[in-house]
Amino acid sequence: MAHNSTTPAVQTPKDLTVQKYPPILSAEEEHELAVDLFENHNLDAARKLVLSHMRFVAFIAHGYKGYGLEQEDLIQEGTIGLMKAVKRFNPHKNVRLASYAVYWIRAEIHEFIFKNWKIVKVATTKEQRKLFFKLKKAKSNIYTSLNMEQAEEIAEDLGVRPKDVLDMESRLQFNDVAFEVTDEENSTSPVHYLTDENTKTPEQLALIDDSNKHQQQQLYKALSLLDERSLDILQSRYLKEEKTTLHTLADKYEISAERIRQLENKAMKKLKENLEKQI
């Protein structure tokens, strides 16, 4: 039958806490609702699917707390992504909704950050956006400014100048906003109902485990479709504990480091295409 064309409209009340979210659906319950939506366009089924995954959205949104934006807004944007995923979800693909929805949830949150965070307004190109998130991740693990060696390593990874890395880092330092934590006992601030990353609930762990297993299977399948050299480059650059430099791979294949970077980008593009075919 034809796929539903109406996006389910589900509001996320400001005072809706994890404790008030509907319980997570079993695989059977989720499948039954998804089939009802897919084949009968039942919007009540869509609503139940969205609400049952709201704590999953909240958990993902919590990972972006370091950008100085309201957690409530991040959850709202993530919910938009969830609704898009529910609209497109095919229950006959033998994939759990949480696994399928991760991409859509993160995509909406990323776009919201790009539109609203001060520093991101200057990160207009794909390369600048990539650099922005790379630096945010790196800066979360250190408490001092990047040194030249670190800047050169990141610059090599992204194919930009060390100066671009240091410039973006200075903007990050200037604009970073701390996630505010209130001491009010009855506060409705997101920090009070989003658990710490080290104290995940069983429901969160189940969702993460299901998502990770499926994504790992997709990745292995997509990698298996690459040619031998492309596979070796990606494994050396991203899948090994000790990351291989572009120059080391250039020496191995007797070509320039720039050519290795081009092959890496081409392989990543092909990998992405292979992954998208599985959705």
TrEMBL record:
In terms of PANTHER family, this protein maps to: RNA POLYMERASE SIGMA FACTOR RPOH, SIGMA FACTOR RPOH HEAT SHOCK RELATED
UniProt record, GO biological process: DNA-templated transcription initiation
Q: What is this protein called?
A: RNA polymerase sigma factor RpoH
User: SUPFAM superfamilies attached here?
Assistant: Sigma2 domain of RNA polymerase sigma factors, Sigma3 and sigma4 domains of RNA polymerase sigma factors
UniProt keywords (A-Z) are: Coiled coil, Cytoplasm, DNA-binding, Sigma factor, Stress response, Transcription, Transcription regulation
Higher taxonomy: Bacteria, Pseudomonadati, Pseudomonadota, Gammaproteobacteria, sulfur-oxidizing symbionts
The RNA polymerase sigma-70 domain is annotated at: 73-86
Query: Is Coiled coil given among the entry's keywords?
Result: yes
